[in-house]
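Collaborator request log, item 7. Partner lab (contact: R.S.) asked for a structural prediction of Undecaprenyl-phosphate glucose phosphotransferase to inform their binding assays.
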Amino acid sequence: MKTGTPINFLARLLIDYLVLLLAFLCIYHYIFGLRSVFFSLFNLLLFSISITSWTIIGMSVHLYEEFRTRSFAYEFIAILKTTLLHTCFFTFLFFYCFKHYPYPRTFTLLHALLIFTGITVIKFIVKQSLLRLRSNGYNIKNVLIIGTGDTGMKFYNTITSNDHFGYRCIGFIDEQTNPYLNGQYLGKISDLSRILEDHEIDDVIVALPETQNTEMEKIIIASEKEAKRVRIIADCHRFCTSTASMNLFGTFPLLTIRTSPLDDPAKQRFKRIFELCLTTILFITVFWWLFPFIGLLIKLSSPGPILFKQERQGLNNKKITCYKFRSMISNSATINTNGQYLQATLNDSRVTPTGRFLRKTNLDELPQFFNVLMGDMALVGPRPHPIPLHQESKNTIQNYMLRHVVKPGITGWAQVNGYRGETKIEGQMQKRVDFDLWYIENYSIWLDCQIIFQTLMNMIKGDKNAY
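Returned to partner:
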């Protein structure tokens, strides 16, 4: 976990402690009034436990990482996680471990709200202040780039076009110069020690191709001899995404070019438990009477089975049987004369009157809750496609198969953003896949809750793309 310099880390901690103290004081005096004595042994114990738990939780959820090159959204999520865990810990500790907890429940709730608001506002102000300072040339890190090839120049263009990152290039080192360096060429790799002595440099950025890796040991030895931090740009950087991560496998650094929060088994289990609990509640309260009612409507609308079963591709591209309420005339054609899959279209003659209502309100998808119980699907995830459409798309849509690194869902980020139903217009399927990949790379339980809520709203008002 990277927390920046010790001074920077300590300053951020002290600011947070001050916010915790002010929040405690404000809520205490709001509830008990100014006459009450705050600095009692019990209150000092509470505050000590508060800052200790905040520090441990904050470091665990990476609240004190270096956010120099990231948007405030990353820091905001870390603040939210820390506040929630801190509040849960406080609530459990004082309501179950202390026999005589003198404060009402509103104390804990108001305290958590004030902490979250205060920490968020302070960190946002600090973030904006640092951005302004960096734009004016303050709080800057000086870097030396080793390598004048394509990688080195792209890194240089990145830091020069993003002043808020707070990096300044002192110059370049390579065995040969580059006409685009504008006088910033400082010498060869053999001159590194002299250059580090002559210039004020914080980090050495190595941007050499693999063919020049024989020079790497010399660069590292010379840089660390001058107490400079060495950062190496992997030669495979062009394949990496914004979610790339590095882990140690023994002594070998392994670079994963695309990661997801759902790579974590703990998050997978939590998502599974959440969906099982919600599905069970729905079966107990709603589905036990709704399913028979919908089944009766389908039977009265047209002859044939109540459920429609179709093979689709699931997790790791394994086939699953997906269940839906039948919304079309039984034994309707699904493949045209050219062998292409026939997607449902506006005013499709195959759709029954009851089926039209079911599709418009997404009620036809409800039997897929059985798939959730069986573990084939999730409540939220990329929508599984019929096998013929899947085969068409995997060969024509960029990154299409990456949707299958997680379980397919009853609803998804693409669907609540309008990308559901027919995809005959060029680019629609690619957009759907892009939204699915964004969900996979940015998964959180809060995002799942948001998608479920938006799906419910679409069911109530009707989806214009559902037909």
